[in-house]
């Protein structure tokens, strides 16, 4: 049973036990669309496990390497409209200015929120250290 499977099935007790043995939670596996454990949790909206993972040394800025979205965890959460998860990520040292490497349209986190008209999420993001002048990788959205 992989860490990603445990996360996907929301086995909180098993996850807590594994985290005590210094397991690498940042690993990306092909079995789960090249996503990290945190991205799987975000996709499944498992808030309890996310809270636990955020208490350890986890890289929240990794973009899913080759999945169909190629987004950071924050961008996935925004696109799925998981406001509570977004609030949790914004409480830690997350880089909100990252441009998704190949997010459907190479959008920044702020651009995703604006295009999708997520007003509550936009309010939350604007009170962080976001750089509103960051350009998308291929800013051709006229």
Quick recap:
This protein has a single domain, classed as Ankyrin repeat-containing domain (Serine Threonine Protein Phosphatase 5, Tetratricopeptide repeat, Alpha Horseshoe), CATH 1.25.40.20.
Topology:
Elements: H1 3-8, H2 12-19, H3 37-44, H4 47-53, H5 73-79, H6 83-90, H7 109-116, H8 119-126
Helix pairs in contact: 2-4, 5-7, 6-8
What do you see in this structure?
By secondary structure, this protein is mainly alpha-helical. It has one domain (3-126): Serine Threonine Protein Phosphatase 5, Tetratricopeptide repeat, CATH 1.25.40.20. 42% of the residues lie in helices and 0% in strands. It has eight helices and no strands. The protein has helices at 3-8, 12-19, 37-44, 47-53, 73-79, 83-90, 109-116, 119-126. The longest helix has 8 residues, at 12-19. It starts with a helix and ends in a 16-residue tail after the last helix. The model has no long low-confidence stretch (mean pLDDT 76).
Descriptive keywords:
globular; mainly alpha; 142 residues; 8 helices; Serine Threonine Protein Phosphatase 5, Tetratricopeptide repeat; 42% helix
């Amino acid at each position: 049973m992989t860490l990603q499977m445990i996360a996907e099935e929301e086995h909180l007790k098993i996850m807590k036990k594994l985290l005590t043995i210094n397991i690498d939670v940042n690993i990306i596996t092909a079995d789960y669309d090249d996503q990290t454990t945190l991205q799987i949790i975000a996709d499944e909206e498992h808030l309890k496990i996310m809270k636990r993972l955020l208490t350890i040394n986890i890289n929240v800025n990794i973009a899913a390497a080759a999945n169909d979205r190629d987004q950071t965890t924050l961008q996935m959460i925004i696109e799925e409209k998981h406001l509570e998860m977004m609030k949790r990520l914004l409480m830690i040292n997350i880089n909100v200015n990252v441009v998704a490497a190949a997010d459907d349209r190479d959008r920044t986190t702020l651009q995703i929120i604006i295009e999708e008209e997520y007003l509550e999420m936009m309010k939350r993001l604007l009170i962080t250290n976001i750089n509103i002048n960051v350009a998308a990788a291929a800013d051709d959205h006229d």
